[in-house]
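Lecture notes, continued. The same structure-token format from the folding unit now serves as the input rather than the output. Read the line below as a description of shape only.
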């Protein structure tokens, strides 16, 4: 019985401590169409003593240089979003950006900017990147769709 009583406060301390740190930043190439296409995706979190931040970003969808001979010119669309839910009873509020283009056509990366929210133990913030693209015939796919999402529950508290 005493073991249960001692374990509960330790568990509560561990949960509270893990909720205070932002999730690790996500930064990597995302592969589409059986690795024939790729896009660089970044979702970053940060915090100060009173605020929590999130930024979502995606570069253009482009041909994978390690798959030779593919010049696709396929259409793609990218949606990036930074969202906040100030409390468990509130609805999500979203700041977003969209981009559409052709694979291989130079375009600047798109980003939601660095969205800042007040810290709250019941707050959640989220970074999202959604990529939708047509695929080159050599990939064996008609289209591909990827969603990359990271959520921080607790927003710094």
């Amino acid at each position: 019985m005493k073991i249960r009583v001692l374990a509960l406060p330790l568990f509560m301390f561990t949960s509270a401590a893990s909720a205070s740190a932002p999730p690790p930043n996500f930064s990597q190439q995302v592969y589409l169409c059986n690795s024939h296409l790729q896009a660089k995706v970044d979702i970053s979190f940060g915090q100060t003593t009173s605020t929590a931040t999130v930024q979502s970003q995606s570069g253009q969808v482009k041909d994978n240089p390690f798959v030779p001979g593919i010049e696709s010119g396929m259409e793609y669309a990218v949606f990036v979003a930074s969202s906040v839910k100030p409390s468990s009873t509130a609805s999500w509020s979203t700041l977003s950006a969209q981009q559409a283009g052709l694979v291989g056509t130079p375009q600047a990366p798109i980003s939601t900017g660095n969205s800042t929210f007040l810290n709250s133990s019941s707050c959640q913030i989220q970074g999202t990147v959604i990529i939708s693209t047509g695929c080159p015939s050599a990939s064996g796919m008609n289209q591909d769709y990827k969603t990359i999402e990271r959520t921080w529950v607790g927003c710094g508290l």
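Point for the exam: The first strand starts at residue 26 and ends at 32.
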